[in-house]
Amino acid sequence: MTTEPSEITGLLTALAGGDALARDRLYTALYPELKRLARSHLAGHAPMTLEPAALIHEVWLKSAGREGALHRAQFFAHASKVMRSVIVDHLRERRADKRGGGAQVTLSTTALEQLAPPDVLKLDDVLQTLERADGRAHQVVEMRFFGGLDLEEIADALGVSVPTVKRDWRKARAFLFDALQT
């Protein structure tokens, strides 16, 4: 069952406005898309003890009713950021000296496929550097790569034009490519 973006936006708005019933309806409407997003985030990782359902629950606890997330694109951008954060924290714990580790993550954009799979912790460090250097380009990466949003949805969420999003996306990919090669 696919939920219309406008229905999700309406439920997010109702929830932000204090409608308690909207929370359950929103969870039901978002669950299939959140599950797809969680699987996408976990794909390519070394065997993980983290399940998609755990990521969905973390997102729900940290996102539902969140101030400022009044439409679908904003919600999924935030949800993707939460999922990446949970995965990074999980891998940091697993990598602690007392436990061993060595988990790897791969990227699937064309420009980055040529690289050896980067260490997820290095990827997180590079993304933090990008965020400090160019916050909007970082948001574009979060929404496009991790959130699966298209250029029009990102432009709408950021309040900029599609060509601006395209430039930010190219700039961010080049930055990530260079940073992950070293």
UniProtKB/TrEMBL annotation:
Keywords: Sigma factor, Transcription, Transcription regulation. The keyword Metal-binding does not apply. Pfam families: Sigma70_ECF. InterPro entries: HTH_Sigma70_ECF-like, RNA_pol_sigma-70-like, RNA_pol_sigma-70_dom, RNA_pol_sigma70_ECF-like, RNA_pol_sigma_r2, RNA_pol_sigma_r3/r4-like, WH-like_DNA-bd_sf. Signal peptide: none annotated. Residues 6-181 form the RNA polymerase sigma-70 ECF-like HTH domain. Belongs to the sigma-70 factor family. ECF subfamily. This is RNA polymerase sigma factor (TIGR02999 family).
